[in-house]
Every structure is written in structure tokens, then in C-alpha cells.
Known about the structure:
Order of helices and strands: HHHHH
Structural class: mainly alpha
Radius of gyration: 18 Å
Strand content: under 5%
Helix content: over 70%
Distance between the termini: 31 Å
Amino acid sequence: MKPETMWLLTGIAGTLGVLVCLWCMMNKKNGLYTRLCALKEGFAMPDLQFRYDAEQLYTTLDAVGDEGKRLMMRFWTLDFALIASMFAMMAVVTNNIATIPWLAAVMLWSNILRAAADLLEDVLLLVACAGYPGKKRVIPAKVAGVVTAIKWVAAVVWVAGMFLSLFLRGWAM
């Protein structure tokens, strides 16, 4: 199979994976996030914020109760598929637009760091919440907040690389 075909199939699979995961998470009728928002007005997933601490995580869990905890843990489990799909999609975009080697390397490594941090974040959040409220695992919760910030920084670096690559490609025309 030609490399171009492999990249095309990877892009299609990644895009479809992202769409399916986001539909399961965010659809207006029965998505996990929609159901969480119905449990508490002004609800915000901790890992969708730039940074949070253990106390904010546990305050959120208290606010949404056992049903919310169950939904949040399903959200983070489904996030594993979203991470893999986004990694594939972002790798395809990097391959298609980053023509300068150093910029392609920055985009590739920021994508790898983002995916690794996101995976670690979800594992830490699942561990931190698994025994709650009986067990309050503060260390994984604190580390998850720091890893979340790293994830967002890596994502911003990748997006900046994407826009710079597009600008440079447009400039070269």
C-alpha cells in the first residue's frame, strides 16, 4: 500500500473516531457531558480546564454525586479512544502541512506529548476518583491537575505549529 493511501486511511479513521467520541460525549440529547451538566448548573469537567487542584476535583465530584462520578469515569474511559483518534488526525495534518523539518518535528513531538499527557491524566483521574468518597487519593488528583496543564500547552504548541506551517505554505505560493 502506498504511503499516501495509508495517510488517507489514517486521517479518515482518526476523523471518524473523533466524531463518534465527541457525539457520545457532547450530543445535546444524551451525551455524557450533557447529562453531567443536568446534574449541576455551571458544571465544568476538571480536565477541560487549563489547571485544577485536588480540592476542585473533589468539590466537583461532591456536587454531582454518585451518578455524576459514574458519568465522569465513563467520560474519561471514552477519552482513551478520543486521544488515539486525535493523535491520528493530528499526525495526518502534521504530515500534510509541515514542510519544514524542524517545524514538523515540533508538531510531531507536541502531538506525542499531548497524547501521552492526556492518557496519563485520564489514568490519574480514574485512580483519584475510583474509591471516592471512601478513599481520597490526593496525590494522583494533584498530579492530574499538573499533567492537564502540560496537555493544554502541548496542544497550543501543535496548533501554533499548524498555523505557522499554513502561513509559510501560503507565503511560498
